[in-house]
Structure of GBRR3 protein:
Amino acid sequence: AYNEDDLMLYWKHGNKSLSTDEHISLSQFFIEEFSASSGLAFYSSTGWYNRLFINFALRRHIFFFLLQTYFPAMLMVMLSWVSFWIDRRAVPARVSLGITTVLTMSTIMTGVSASMPQVSYIKAVDVYLWTSFLFVFLSVIEYAAVNYLTTIEERKQLKKRGKASGMYSIDAVQAMAFDGCFHDTDMDMDLTGFSDRCEESETPTQAANVSNADTTRLKRKRSLKGNVGRIILQNNHVIDTYSRVVFPSVYIVFNLFYWGLYI
């Protein structure tokens, strides 16, 4: 009711006019410091009015967000790199892993947005989450490129080999794509052997061939454990090889820059 012509407000002892309990604490913030100040507020109809202010400097508890946001986002990004070590012909495994990590990152981002104030500017946590989401998304795109180039390479190889007696002669890696198990490279396998296994009505000769093939398959599965590393090295693509180094390196540099700038 009284403007500056009628009433003047001020802090008598400045910051010393304020006193608080040392044991006061907040659930989400640390109270760094507080200061007293004064100012004027203008109302067009009545004039200027004195105002007293107390300014609080707060620091957020970061450990809560590390557990709920940053650590899960880091783990999802590192989990998306696992696909770089999976056989490039294991389409269901790599696609499902990529889609799962993308959906998980979307869930984390949605949860953080719901718990934060709805502001129009970009927050530091938004920068981190969107960058992490970009890494996960690029890992899915990376496999799309690997799968496409692998298909082109296989088509070129099939054209070079041509047809022999109306059947294609395929190597161990291609045979693995048909029946799901590893085959030795020194053994010739054709498409007819795989199609015969899927037929419901089998002749005695075909049944004998299937039983022999099953016995051979069991032997190969036993020797597969010692050859996993060699199989992965033989079946990986050059893009996967570079991705195993580029993705982690860039992500580490981003984390160093982020934690040094915002924290």
About this structure: The longest strand covers residues 29-43.
